[in-house]
Amino acid sequence: MSAVAKRTWTPAEYLAMERASEEKHEYLDGEIHLMSGASRNHNVVMANTLASLHAQLRQRPCVVFPSDMRVKVSETWTYTYPDISVVCDPPELEDTFLDTLLNPTLIIEVLSPSTESYDRGRKFQHYRALPSLREYLLISQDEARIEHYVRQANDEWLLSDAVGLDATLDLNSIGCYLALADVYEKVTYETE
After folding, report:
1. Beta bridge partners of 34
2. Rounded to 5 degrees, what are φ and ψ at 78?
3. Mean pLDDT of the chain
4. pLDDT under 70: residue ranges of the chain
5. 10 Å Cβ neighbour count for 4?
């Protein structure tokens, strides 16, 4: 991500600019950052994951959102576009535009070389400030591996890994599972 301009933007200025833009930008510490494009594997992994969760949640009150649903972390005045977000309570939206979710239950990011350190570090730090967030997934696009963070009763986060195409991951906060064979279906890996 690169900063759009070296100036401080207010949240209202950001939202006005973002809603008029054809590109997506994230808002962090008063700066606006242009989001980069995604690779084929990133898109396949994201689509497979979204499809799996959507199919499991069709007859339930949870809603799965793709990467066009912006999430606001009110506690840190951050606006992001997770690859996938799920809300199981009635969705709380920032305003009448209905394009900014305030209460995700689960957030999923597909790791990219350009954003991996941000997704693991500062972005996850912001997400942890969301009182509604119960689980956070980091999905590799380069190997069959999902890192699964679960909020504990004491507000600590417990990490477990699901590795290999035979692995399955339970998402207790939304009553779903992810089979890595489904997540990585049609993903191709470069050979060296």
Report:
1. 2, 25
2. -115, 140
3. 94
4. 1-5, 191-192
5. 17
Partners of residue 173 on adjacent β-strands:
none
Give the position of tokens 């207790």: 172
pLDDT of res. 3: 55
Structure tokens at 189: 């890996």
pLDDT at 6: 73
* Domains in the chain: boundaries: 1-35, 38-183
Pairing mode of beta strands 63-65, 84-87? antiparallel
Residues in the chain: 192
Q: What is the largest CA-CA distance in the chain?
A: 50
Token readout for 169 is 């991951």
Architecture of the domain whose range is 38-183:
Alpha-Beta Complex (3.90)
Q: Is 149 left (phi over 0), alpha (psi -120 to 50) or beta?
A: beta
DSSP category for residue 93? B
Amino acid code (one letter) for 107? I
Closest to 81 measured CA to CA, from 159, 23, 135, 150: 23
Residue 94 · residue 102 · CB < 8 Å: yes
Determine the Cα–Cα distance for residues 115 and 108; give it in Å rounded to an integer. 13
Two tokens, residue 96 = 């009448």
